[in-house]
């Protein structure tokens, strides 16, 4: 089973991407944990472990079994806005 993120990209492709502030802003209101982890330089497995233990560096929204990450929280952590 493959996971997709905004724009139909495979989540694995996000890991090697260079994230600019504009690219983060273009994600929309929320993104998934894998994309947020790639932006913050955290591996996928570690990101989900942090999310389960309520230790992810930014606020998460739990919707059913999914975690959503507010993009504004990522920008705040990066001291952009």
Question: How would you characterize this protein structure?
Answer:
The protein has 81 residues and is of the alpha+beta class. The protein is 41% helix and 14% strand. The chain has five helices and three strands; from the N terminus they run H-H-E-H-H-E-E-H. The chain has helices at residues 11-14, 21-25, 33-40, 44-52, 71-77; strands at 30-32, 61-63, 66-70. Strands 1-3-2 form a three-stranded antiparallel beta sheet. Strand 2 and strand 3 form a beta hairpin. Helix 3 (33-40) crosses helix 4. The longest helix has 9 residues, at 44-52. The radius of gyration is 12 Å and the shape is globular. The model is unreliable at 1-12 (pLDDT under 50).
Features:
single chain, 81 residues, alpha+beta, 3-stranded antiparallel sheet, 41% helix, 14% strand
